[in-house]
Amino acid sequence: MTMKRTEETMREEGRSGDREHRPNTRTTEVAGRSSGGVKSAEPVVTVENLSMYYGSFKALQDVNMRIDRNSVTALIGPSGCGKSTFIRSINRMHEIVPKARVEGKVILDGEDVYAPDVDPVRVRRKVGMVFQKPNPFPTMSIYDNVLAGIKLGGKRKKGELDEVVERTLRQAALWDEVKDKLKQGGTSLSGGQQQRLCIARTLAIEPEVILMDEPASALDPVSTQKIEDAMEDLKERYTVVIVTHNMQQAARISDYTGFFFIENMGDPGRLWEFDETSKMFSNPNRKETEDYVTGRFG
Amino acid sequence: MSSIHGNPSGYGRRKLMDRVMTTLAYLCAAAAIIPLTWIIVYVVIKGLGAWDAEFFTGLPQLFGDGGGVRNGIVGTLVIVGLATLMGVPIGVMAGIYLAEYGNNRFGTVVRFLADTMTGIPSIVVGIFAFGLIVVNTGGFSAFAGSVALALLMIPVITRTTEEIIRLVPDSIREASLGLGVSRWKTILRVVVPTALSGIVTGVLLAVARVAGETAPLILTILGTNFPISANIFDGPSTTLSLQIYQLGAQPSPEVVEVAWGAAMLLVLIVLGTSILARVIFRGQSVRGR
Amino acid sequence: MGFFKGLRRGHTTDTVFAGVALLFGLFIVLIMGGIIYQLWLQSSVARQEFGWGVLTSSEYNPGAEEYGALSFIYGTLVTAALAILIAGPIGVGIAAYLVEIAPERVNRVLGFIVELLAAVPSIVYGLWGFFALAPFLRDYVVPPLQGVLGWTPLFSGTFFGATVFTASIVLAIMILPTVAAVSRDVLRAVPRDQREGMLALGATRWETFQRAVLPYAMNGVLGAVILGLGRAAGETMAVTFIIGNKPELFTSLFAQGATLASQIAGQFPEAGGVTLSFLILLGLILFVITILINICARLVVRLVSRVPKGGVRA
After folding, report:
1. C272 lies within 8 A of chain A by CB
2. Distance between CA C127 and CA A156 in Å, rounded?
3. Domain encompassing residue B271
């Protein structure tokens, strides 16, 4: 019942060109709010009725979301309610887990990511990912770590590669710290530096969307600050979807916020509320959202 | 804006490479199955013809119809049985030592030596048993052979026992110690029974391994075509494995056929024991894990 | 010393039990010492008679009192090297299939088959190699091989069933389980985040394996291959049955040869006096070779645990 209405709401909004849609919201009269820091209204990813299963276990149910180009979307919610699972479904990274399967659609630039003739390898080229734990390749130098993705595509000129390394390391706010030791191993860096190296590595393949799975959860405040600073600039060129447990972080860096929640133990996770960040943190439509963002549970 | 459909330049070659390497991996997997199937089918085809009443009750005849391998069957049971009697207690106790008392420099040395021993060729272990027992007692004997086999079993049993006992959660030990039960009773009455199915599996795999051993037996029991000596400490003995070697090299096809029959029986025993070991372990696993 | 520390506390029986356990640990050390002592003792006649020259002489003719070990060492190293040349890539391929491709069910079945392959007795491999594989090679493999490569010394001459070539192939099959099982464990230990990192950059499965998994696991895979080499060098019965037992510095793989182990097993029943002592000297040489290979493998595998884990630096 609720589901159906959400779909309708979404289609309606799609027609009217409204920037955000509101799955599962009880009140519908929120159109016409200020657009905040949002610069574009073009969707780069549209998720329709997405459900995810691990074997017979349903991890996620009926998620609908529209992700605008050059926006930062933060996904928040208690542990284990499907946030990481959800972003993995956008670039099909969940497929490396045996028996994981998806229902519904993920539309990337107008193309269904799950269409039978789509190769996940091609999807991941357009939708990059930064993981919770920094995972540079230990046998590669810093330089080669940045280029790991680019080199898959074949030979390039040395000058061109040098340029990519410098540009992406600058974007990831790491260049000044490593410019004199590019030939050193990628794991010689501190945890925060490693994570920024992983961001640079992802930027180097020039994806349209960057998924970040709690990229700062294991890092010190200084590193976290640097990553947040970098994110501010990234928005100019990329679309970022970030899972975070840090409410302040979500409030600081994102344009939109999605709240994932499981009402009863054993239920699949749902996108409980999705809206502009300012609205989510000041005047959310649902009580659970308010409880969560104000720190009453989670 | 590039599409996720179709193959942009360069990607076709990458995809092809992926396919080729995946196919190669499948072929490698097949390469493991082919020889095993070939060997088992061949042994059964060749060996089945040799299995008659005389095969189990007679003695090898180097002329005529080849006879049977009664002495080898008895010898295998006696020698492997003796080896198990000697090897299991030593191997299990050494394993308990490593798991429960072995977190020190001496334990590291023992562990390293046990690992290294598993890599020593069995024929070298045969030379040791030859020098230690055959030379000193003045003759070949079933006992010398079983000592050699026991020595081959010990490091295998020691390492598997250690690994299995280490899997027993500390909470189980602490629960028992907390009730005031002494450490040795805790180990023997709580830890070892918890790990028992794993230990039995390790023992069975070690038994299966040595039951097929031949090289060290050439140096210790010599082999015979007559009934094995009733005195395990004196006189040549034989086993199925040794008979395969000695009868299989004979010119007469009838004798070689008996060797095939012995091979089939030995494969049955060895693979049967290995499978049994697996079944026991899968059936029970380490409790409490 | 460290190992008495655990013995001091607690009840008397605890101390006794710990002492007994320690004795059994000591037993392992004693066995190792005993093996070395016996090899040394029993080979003393040959060592005194021939000195170090035995290692460099390839002349072996007991009737003429000529005892050289070189052709046996040569045979051992060449067959083991050939075997690992075949089994190394295939074994790693099996491991890669098991870890990266095979679904859970197939994984278990194939893992079991590999284990069974390891359980087949050496002598049965010998019998099969002599009566089944050798004729097959003679009829179907050697003619085309000689057609293409017959001009090289490696593949020249007439192929009689029992040859270095046949022995090496049987050895390869026998060490396949070792290489496959150890590499599988090593590949399985590569953290998932390494694979994810490469996949997320748009790598194919092969590229992920080649560029992220394999470099990470390289030391361990190398260790697996060296362990296989050690096993091949010490393998006795199958080789004794198949290689032809002709002490010679062969050049063609289709020639007959002899290894240290095959010479001991083949000649032992008839040997006495100096010849017997010489055979045990061969055993001593074999012991040293396999121990060196094994220690080498274990050191390399141990290095694996020192590879940075790609996570936050400790």
Report:
1. no
2. 56
3. 53-284
CA A102 – CA A95 distance, rounded (Å) = 9
Q: What CATH number does the domain containing B244 carry?
A: 1.10.3720.10
What is the number of residues in chain A?
A: 298
| pLDDT, tens only, B60-71 | 998 888 889 999
pLDDT tens profile A239-271: 999 999 888 888 988 999 999 999 888 889 999
Domain boundaries, chain C: 2-42, 69-304
Q: Is residue B135 part of a domain?
A: yes
Asked whether residue B165 is assigned to any structural domain, the reply reads yes
Contacts of B234 (CB under 8 A, 6+ apart): B137, B139, B141
CA-to-CA distance for C128 and C120, rounded, in angstroms? Answer: 11
B79-101 as b/e: b if 16+ CB within 10 A = bbebbbebbbebbbbbbbbbbbb
pLDDT band at B2 (very low <50, low <70, confident <90, very high): low
The helix (H) or strand (E) run that includes residue A7 is helix A2-16
Is the ipTM higher than 0.90? The answer is yes
The residue assigned the tokens 């390394």 is A165
Counting beta carbons within 10 angstroms of the beta carbon of residue C272, is it exposed (0 to 12), middle (13 to 18) or buried (19 or more)?
exposed
Residue in chain A lying closest to B11 (CA): A153
B8 located within any domain: no
Say whether pLDDT at A19 is over 70: no
For chain B, the domain total comes to 1
In a domain, B109, yes or no: yes
CB B51 within 8 A of CB A155: no
- Pick C69-304's CATH classification: 3.90.76.10, 1.10.3720.10, 1.10.10.10, 1.10.443.10: 1.10.3720.10
Chain B residues within 8 A of C234 when measuring between CB atoms: 119-124
- C199 and A139 within 8 Å at the Cβ level: the answer is no
Instruction: Specify the 3-state DSSP secondary structure of C217.
Output: helix
**Structural domains in chain A, sorted by start:** 2-27+37-293 (3.40.50.300)
CB contact under 8 A, B4 and A153: no
| Closest CA relative to residue A207, chosen from A89, A152, A120, A126 | A126
Interface test with A, best of C101, C312, C313 (most A CBs within 10 A): C312
d(CA B7, CA B16): 11
CA distance C264 to chain B (A): 8
Q: Which two three-digit tokens encode residue A224?
A: 């976290």
On chain A, the residues whose CB falls within 8 A of the CB of B1 are 109, 208
How many Å lie between the alpha carbon of B17 and the closest alpha carbon of chain A?
12
The reply to whether residue A208 touches residue B1, judged by beta carbons under 8 angstroms, is yes
The one-letter amino acid at C294: N
Residue B243 in tokens: 């008979």
Contact C311 A189 (CB under 8 A): no
| φ, ψ of residue A273 in degrees (nearest 5) | -155, 140
Distance (Å, whole) CA C6 – CA B276: 37
* B48 contacts chain C (CB < 8 A): no
